TrEMBL record:
Species this chain originates from: Corynebacterium qintianiae
Main location: membrane
SMART domains per the UniProt record, alphabetical: Germane
Keywords tagged on the record: Cell membrane, Lipoprotein, Membrane, Palmitate, Signal
Protein name (record): Lipoprotein LpqB
Signal peptide residues on this chain, from the entry's feature table: 1-28
Cross-referenced InterPro entries: GerMN, LpqB, LpqB_C, LpqB_N
Membrane topology: Lipid-anchor
Family from the record: Belongs to the LpqB lipoprotein family.
Pfam families according to UniProt: Germane, Gmad1, LpqB_N
Domain GerMN: 205-288
Localisation: Cell membrane
Entry's Gene Ontology cellular component terms: plasma membrane
Length: 571
């Protein structure tokens, strides 16, 4: 039998190979209410039945409201919601056709025929819950006609459209968001794929594992790698081990990659292991009986594993390093001091800057120990943003041209344009563009509105931004600044005095205003580290603990009191 040290050594050596190997691609999807698909039968955990059923002698309008609440419970193929329907409607209704999420539902009586009544149902759609639990934001209206009739003295719904409609509050009450983790195209970064899982399930593990086996959600699928064959299946826990079938074609590196995905997906749900994994009757990786988070620490996607990042600030055209409550100018290391209007810094000591006045600006990039080289010239540039591992630098020229610059071994930069597939009718200037820490997602501010897109990579090194969607429509027209937070959400600064700093969820499913306190709109710059959110308002640069719920006021950043500057968190 292998010792713990030899097992750990083997896992770690394989983990090194994991970052350099190429991956195969496969994909699938699974509805949130379906039982796990398995090759051999096992006793799948059951779901609790709905706790909402028709109240005796309920009035038609109240019956409809209770029905919509019951529609948020997918247990037993929506049996609770079906109990509100006539027998004919029960047989005809397809609740799985779609799951639309609205802000709230309003109803008006259209016709009252005594034994039958018709209602007009309306709401503002905020998104759709796709099969597999992926939330896709949307901005449109919802309207439908529903009819009720008396059956044995009780009102029941006799006519309704296909699909489920639930209110935002029911989504939050009945479902919980969790991250699945898949590797990016390079095989080096674990990328979160947020899913909403019905909270009434008896086994969260089964739900997450089954979803993991069926691959990334549709929106991000083209940007991720997925190793597992279509016949892969989870068959339950046997003798303490998570057991799978259909993995016989996987090589050792693919098996280790799957173990990493499984470990971190379960860890994000509070299931920390160690976990034993068996595939087709044998250990997933020969000689390795179990895996834990320490085995894959280098690829940890969890916020607490990110570690502290260096903090910089840009003030009066000069770049400063901020540490130990002191701001030190980068004089001597950045030759362009005094003329900088935008900057980004990586944790590896690379930096990118924009210099010059609007109408005549230059984009430069380089390293602190070598200086910067001119890359591009344009009338205007956005703030630059680094890809993961500094493999490229993006910047928007003249509000329209998204460019990616890559440094060669000789130190010269090669620049190419990045196509962006914007939604129909969106044709404004891009004032902010920021890549996520994995480089798979991008957030943009276009004419004061937040959009996010997915970055596709191609074998020739080219990139393309696809599947661009509007986020936070309630903030449309007021957004000035935006950046990614370590947990995958977005922090935005606005011109709205009622919501100067707002958190936007990674999937666009909701927004949460940060405490207003003493911060004054407009908020022209934002940034976020593991434990702190930074914002530049009308007066100064301020900070607040990232998870603070009981703090009402922002504080000036130590070392920058009385200085209005731009926060820069290196990554």
């Amino acid at each position: 039998m292998r010792t713990r040290n030899s097992r750990a050594s083997r896992v770690m050596s394989l983990a090194v190979a994991l970052t350099t190997s190429a991956l195969l691609t496969s994909c699938a999807s699974l509805p949130t209410d379906s039982a796990p698909q398995v090759i051999r039968k096992f006793d799948a955990p059951t779901q609790a039945i709905s706790d909402i059923t028709p109240a005796p002698d309920s009035d038609p309008d109240l019956l409809l409201r209770d029905f919509f609440a019951a529609s948020a419970v997918p247990a037993s193929n929506y049996e609770g919601a079906r109990s509100f329907l006539t027998e004919q409607a029960r047989q005809a209704w397809d609740p799985n056709a779609s799951t639309i999420v609205v802000d709230r539902i309003s109803m008006n009586t259209l016709a009252d025929g005594g034994a039958t009544q018709s209602f007009n149902v309306q709401g503002n759609v905020i998104g759709e819950l796709r099969p597999g639990g992926a939330f896709v934001p949307a901005r449109q209206g919802y309207e439908a006609t529903m009819e009720v009739e008396r059956v044995d003295g009780q009102w029941r719904i006799s006519s309704l459209p296909a699909g489920s409609v639930i209110e935002r509050t029911e989504l939050r009450n009945r479902y919980q968001p969790y991250n699945l983790y898949f590797y990016d195209r390079s095989g080096e970064e674990l990328v979160p794929d947020r899913r909403w899982v019905y909270a009434g399930r008896d086994s969260l593990e089964t739900a997450l594992i089954t979803l993991l086996l069926h691959g990334p959600s549709e929106r991000v699928r083209s940007a991720l790698k997925f190793d597992l064959p279509a016949e892969a299946a989870y068959t339950g826990i046997e003798d303490g081990a998570y057991t799978f079938t259909g993995l016989s074609t996987l090589g050792e590196e693919e098996r280790l990659r799957f173990a990493s995905q499984l470990v971190w997906t379960l860890a994000g749900a509070g299931i920390n292991g160690p976990i034993a994994i068996e595939a087709d009757g044998d250990p997933l990786v020969p000689g390795v009986e179990s895996f834990n988070r320490d085995d894959f620490a280098a690829s940890s996607p969890l916020v607490e594993s990110v570690g502290d990042s260096s903090f910089y600030t840009l003030a009066n055209g000069r770049l400063f390093s901020v540490a130990d409550e002191t701001a030190q100018p980068m004089d001597g290391r950045v030759a362009e001091q005094g003329n900088i209007v935008a900057a980004d810094v990586s944790n590896s000591g690379n930096y990118a800057i924009v210099t010059g006045a609007e109408g005549d600006q230059t984009f430069r990039a380089g390293a602190f120990d070598q200086g910067a080289k001119e890359v591009l010239q344009a009338d205007t540039f956005t703030r630059p943003t680094f890809e993961s591992n500094d493999s490229g630098i993006w910047v928007v020229a003249d509000g329209r041209r998204v460019t990616r610059s890559v440094r060669s071994a000789s130190g010269d930069f090669t620049t190419s344009e990045v196509p962006v597939d914007l939604p129909e009718g969106v044709d404004g200037s891009i004032s902010v563009l920021r890549l996520s820490s994995t480089g798979v997602r991008v957030v943009m501010v276009i004419e004061g509105t937040v959009y996010t897109g997915i970055v596709e990579q191609y074998g020739n090194g080219e990139r393309k931004v696809v599947n661009v969607l509007e986020y936070a429509p309630d903030l449309a027209g007021s957004v000035i600044s935006a950046d990614w937070q370590p947990d995958g959400s977005i922090v935005v600064g606005t011109s709205n005095p009622g919501s100067p700093v707002v958190r936007v969820e990674q999937d666009g499913s909701g927004t949460t205003g940060k405490p207003i306190g003493n911060i004054t709109a407009p908020v022209v710059a934002v940034a976020s580290g593991v434990g702190m959110v930074y914002a530049t308002d009308a007066n100064a640069i301020l900070q607040m603990p990232a998870g603070a719920n009981d703090v009402s006021n922002w504080r000036e950043v130590p070392g920058l009191q009385g200085v209005r500057s731009v926060p820069i968190v290196a990554r």
